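To fix ideas, we reproduce below one chain and its tokenised fold.
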Amino acid sequence: MSTLNFDLDTAIDTLAEQGWIVIPHALPAALTAALRESCLAVWEEGLFHEAATGRADGQARRAEIRSDSVLWLDQVAERPAVAAYNAAMDDVMRGVNRGLYLGLAELESHFAVYPEGAFYKKHLDRFRDDDARTLTTVFYLNEGWPKDAGGQIRLYLDDECQEFVDIEPEAGTLVLFLSDCFWHEVLPARQQRLSVTGWYRRRGNSVPW
């Protein structure tokens, strides 16, 4: 039985129309809380690493571009909350493939922790030399996020990056958007900010990490 708290067919229709969607309360509150607890537990264990930009041999830590830390979910896949999240996102992938014929084959995703003051400057999620990343996913874990705490994802809706929508990083909110179409950034967070960020990929050569 699916754990999705929303109508997937309606979400797919919105994706087809505008290329992005914001879904509040997308997963059960208990699963969201368990994911948050798992994220904080592995953060306290020191398993995260500072996030880099680029891919393969071109990866580098550039603190002027991004200042978050990440942990890939395949490193903690045995945790029940992570397994349940992956199962729910598999349901999303099957639905998107059925409705939009995107040929998605896998989801790569990580916990992301933004300490106070952390940010991620404007960027696209698709690499110049690898078009496998197709649909970006962001799932927030921040319960009771204050309106003045920053940390929104700013999704630019036009090629000139003049029109945008700011999405609050409130627990349970799922954001989906086409990876090659939307520039976006994470505004500076004024307190610790937690999420699960991922990319549905088409079949092709795996990215070496």
